[in-house]
Amino acid sequence: MRLFRYTSRQEACADLLLWSVMFIVPLVGMVVLSSVDNNYSFRWADLKHIWFPLVVILLAFIVHDIFIAPRLIYEHNRTRYVVLVGCLMIAFVCFQCASGPPGRPFGEKMKASPQQTVEKEKKPPFHPMAGPHDFTMFSLLVFALGANLGLKLYFKTQEEQKQRADLENENLRQELNYLRYQVNPHFLMNTLNNIHALCDIEPDTAKRSIVQLSRFMRYLLYESHNEQISLQHAIDLMNQHISLMSIRYTDNVDIRVDVPQEVPNVSLAPLVFVPFIENAFKHGVSYDKPSFIHITLTADNDNIEFGCCNSKNKVKHETGGVGLSNVTKRLDLIYGERYTLNIDDGEDCYRVKLVIPAYKN
């Protein structure tokens, strides 16, 4: 029903627990009193005199929960809320005044002496909703309405925090995808240019490179969305990546890749090393003098260390590609403060050292 659209399961359970306690406490108190006081006899009629105003307060609680509290919490209409709560309290006071005493004394003794009987007849019978008890029930009403409002505010705050966290996670996923797709087109552009250069002079090599590129792009399309990949898989992809990037270069470029023979069973985020490898080939290869690109990778069960050292060709390239700011931003989103990135931009050599935590499989 539309009236109950604001009530969550946790809130309903909290309300049920609150009212269970409020109805059980008088029962337990009367049972305990009858066991310690021989002059008092437990009677269900006496308990009904206490439960009756509680039922009235419960009805007021339900009206407040369904019709009044949402005006303040979800519609932010304070004036209407104050007016409605005031009307509810006035109606409760009017009900107290109109209900009248039931006529049965509360806590009647099992045995009474003649003198006690005479004294009892001189006193009016006790009524749960008369005299000082009126103020007690009114205070209980205020407590119930306040508890209801507090519970609603608490669960609304919890729901908003959850929605905010979900939104932040979704924004992080979208931002990571955006940064990841900045990597993929840049790599594709470089590789297609390399294959294009081979089509006339080495067509067989170009054909093999196209097949290799197809396999690599299949990974980018179907597997790069995973949060983690195994280190062994990452090494295989890195080797394919380096092979594709180096197809147009001669022996004048010294390309070395040093990876461990035995790889621990750990995982890492995908495409972490791609930007550094692409930038090494883009800025580290010269066609008129010897150049080098040295890549190392070591790993244990706790950390993965990637290193890349390349020569500098001192040629200004066109704008575009994957900048260092995007690389560090993606690392920040994935690892927070749990990684270290050291870059040494020397006169003739550009060094990168990246240490990231290893996820155990």
Describe this structure in words.
The chain is of the alpha+beta class and 361 residues long. The protein folds into 2 domains: 2-165, no CATH class; 199-360, Histidine kinase-like ATPase, C-terminal domain (Heat Shock Protein 90). Helix content is 59%, strand content 13%. The protein has 9 helices and 8 strands. The protein has a 5-stranded mixed β-sheet, covered by helices on one side. The chain has a 3-stranded antiparallel β-sheet with strand order 1-3-8. Helix 2 (44-73) crosses helix 5. The protein is rod-shaped. Residues 1-5, 102-132 and 318-322 have low confidence and may be disordered.
Q: Unreliable segments (pLDDT under 50, ≥5 consecutive)?
A: 1-5, 102-132, 318-322
Number of domains: 2
Radius of gyration, Cα only, in angstroms? Answer: 39 Å
Strand content: 5-15%
Mean pLDDT: 78
Beta strands, count: 8
Overall, the morphology is rod-shaped
* Distance between the amino and carboxyl termini: 47 Å
> How many H/I helical runs?
9
